[in-house]
Specification:
With 423 residues, the protein is of the alpha+beta class. The protein is 22% helix and 35% strand. The structure holds zinc ion (2 copies).
């Protein structure tokens, strides 16, 4: 009896396996992407339309190269589905519009290009809780940063050396829990804290990092983690005098610049060859996350984790001691933080600065060329658009602006780097 049972079970298994392989030979149900078309330029809300095969049931999702995913709605009594996809939630540039279905072999994709205007999001990228030498807990810090300070972007960066594995898990969970695309983005972080200097990491994949500087640069570059030099003083006493590292330059994209001494460090770093954006973060150790004295304006097409991480990687940000002053700076059409690859003959810098508060006058705009002020404008107004043309000698150059408000508040843009070719 037992033997007969075994034979029956084995026969059933063989038949089941055969059934699976027959199924595998059937052609995959084919999805047709009706809209958008290959190579199409997308912006704002995108009307995605698909033709769905009858044999495909279950949910279908659409995304631009990844999250956020939008669920397709089926048109009643038709084989079509459609959804409005917000292209502002993903970085500008080439993207794949991806269709995910319950049958992996039916998944489809089409190449498109996304282009949306950049908005400014105010952020604090350096702060602590009681998990290192600050106070209270990550969930409390996030609640404060989002609802009291009303930040757009927040990053907790407790000292790596204090944080145990359980706390690191909680730091990440608190960040993901508090994040809501379109409203508030939190990126989990850690502060590499050594005698030689302090460096923030954004969204690091691990809390285990080499203790030596060269090893750290290499590990961060390999992991593709965006880093920031913290409180550099005048730059001469930290991180081996900010000695240039080609490997480090691949990972470190920002430096805290909030006062005159740090401006000196910034000028030194740029002169040594680093490609860095200035950052204004509070480094708070108290319970006032994101509302002390300095912020970063991050330029991104929309408020999503993907966009913010991408903007930090591209150095699309400025440091500001004013909570809501909007600063834009372009050179030859490139956004602050960009490195223009194609050599150029002419240099045209455009500064747009506007403070929404009627009393917050812009006193002075200084244009820096290779670390020296070469032109100054004195708007004595809350807003100004200023265009400057330069004709530097052949070779490599970089440009950024510093803004001084009547109340003494300062702003620094990220530079644009370029090469001027021989005449
Ligand atoms: Zn520090
Ligand atoms: Zn710190």
């Amino acid at each position: 009896m037992l033997r007969r049972c075994c034979v029956v079970v084995m026969l059933a298994l063989v038949l089941a396996a055969a059934g699976r392989s027959w199924g595998a030979r059937q052609p995959a149900p084919k999805i047709e992407i009706l809209q958008p078309q290959t190579g199409q330029a997308l912006g704002g809300l995108v009307d995605v339309r698909l033709k769905l095969p009858a044999q495909l049931s279950g949910p279908v999702y659409v995304g631009l190269g990844g999250p956020p995913w939008a669920r397709l709605e089926r048109v009643p009594d038709a084989s079509e589905g459609r959804v409005l996809l917000d292209s502002r939630m993903v970085p500008n540039g080439p993207q794949k519009l991806i269709v995910k279905t319950p049958n992996k072999r039916a998944d489809a994709a089409v190449d498109v290009t996304v282009g949306n205007p950049l908005q400014v999001y105010f952020s604090d990228l350096h702060s602590h809780t009681g998990y290192s030498d600050g106070v209270l807990l990550p969930s409390v810090a996030h609640d404060y940063a989002r609802n009291v300070s009303r930040l757009d972007v927040f990053t907790l960066t407790d000292h790596l050396e204090y944080v145990d594995d359980t706390e690191w898990l909680d730091i990440r969970e608190a960040a993901w829990d508090a994040s809501e695309d379109g409203k508030f983005v939190s990126i989990p972080g850690l502060e590499w804290t050594k005698k030689i200097g302090h460096i923030n990491m954004f969204d690091p994949p691990t809390n285990r990092w080499p203790a030596d500087l060269a090893g750290f640069y290499q590990a961060a570059a390999d992991a593709g983690v965006v880093c920031k030099f913290n409180h550099p003083g005048d730059g001469t006493k930290v991180l081996e005098g900010l000695a240039y590292s080609e490997v480090g330059d691949r990972a470190v994209e920002l430096m805290e610049v909030r006062r005159a001494s740090e401006e000196q460090a910034y000028l030194l770093a740029l002169k040594l060859g680093w490609h860095l954006a200035p950052d204004g973060s509070d480094d708070t150790h108290g319970p006032t996350w994101g509302s002390r004295f300095a912020w970063s304006g991050i330029l991104a097409p929309g408020l999503s984790k993907r966009n913010i991480l991408d903007a930090l990687k591209k150095r699309h940000c400025y440091s500001t001691l004013d909570r809501d002053c909007i600063l834009r700076f372009k050179v030859n059409g490139a956004v602050m933080g960009d490195i223009i690859a194609e050599p150029t003959q002419t240099v045209e810098a455009v500064v747009t600065v506007r403070d929404p508060n009627p009393g917050d006058t812009i006193d002075k705009i200084e244009l820096f060329e290779d670390g020296t002020v070469v032109q100054t404008d004195e708007p004595k107004a809350v807003g100004r658009r200023w265009t400057v043309r330069r004709t530097p000698q052949a070779g490599r150059h970089y440009y950024f602006v510093k803004i001084t408000q009547a109340d003494g508040n300062l702003l620094w843009s990220a530079p644009v780097w370029l090469t001027v070719k021989e005449k």
